[in-house]
Amino acid sequence: MITLKGEHIYLRALEPEDLEFIHTIENDESVWEISNTITPYSKFLIKQYLKQSHKDIFEVKQLRLVISSYDEVALGMIDLFDFDFKNSRAGVGILVKNIEDRAKGVGSEALKLLVNYSFNHLGLHQLYCNISEENDVSVKLFSNQGFKKIGLKKDWILVNGSYKNEYIFQLIKY
């Protein structure tokens, strides 16, 4: 699908071969705060998830894609979640796995591709994301793609015994 191909990366569907990659991401406690995870995932559960990943976004209300380089290296994941067909909106989540792959435009290009796909192929009217107030990198990433900060949720996330504030950003197709 040409829609999901960028200049340096492309977005692709999950494959059974992604088991180890997803298992590593889902069990990396350093990103549990942004994924709202509190327990590890077994390889068995991830295998079950991968078996169901072919289902349509309209059925499962989410779409998870791998951010891949053109030399077939999985760099990260990007998701649409809480897909709401009636109200024509979805949430967006993104993670570039390795620190050395960050700040090179990978996330920006992936987000741009997903926004285009969401508006032009899925017919969505709006996208939103939730970002910790302290996550300056994500604030910049989403702001640079046209998302607007529309609110602050006070004491929204409990992390290591302390509450953190979380922004909500929104992008509306006009």
Protein architecture, described:
This is GNAT family protein. Keywords: Transferase. It holds the Pfam family Acetyltransf_3. This protein has helices at 19-26, 32-35, 43-52, 57-60, 106-120, 136-144, and strands spanning 9-13, 63-69, 74-84, 89-96, 126-132, 148-159, 162-172. The protein has 174 residues and is of the alpha+beta class. The protein has a single domain (2-128), classed as Gcn5-related N-acetyltransferase (GNAT) (Aminopeptidase, 3-Layer(aba) Sandwich), CATH 3.40.630.30. Strands 1-2-3-4-5-7-6 form a seven-stranded mixed β-sheet. Helix 1 (19-26) packs across helix 3 (43-52).
Topology:
Blueprint: E1 9-13, H1 19-26, H2 32-35, H3 43-52, H4 57-60, E2 63-69, E3 74-84, E4 89-96, H5 106-120, E5 126-132, H6 136-144, E6 148-159, E7 162-172
Parallel strand pairs: 4-5
Antiparallel strand pairs: 1-2, 2-3, 3-4, 5-7, 6-7
Helix pairs in contact: 1-3
EC number: 2.-.-.-
Enzyme class: transferase
Keywords: Transferase
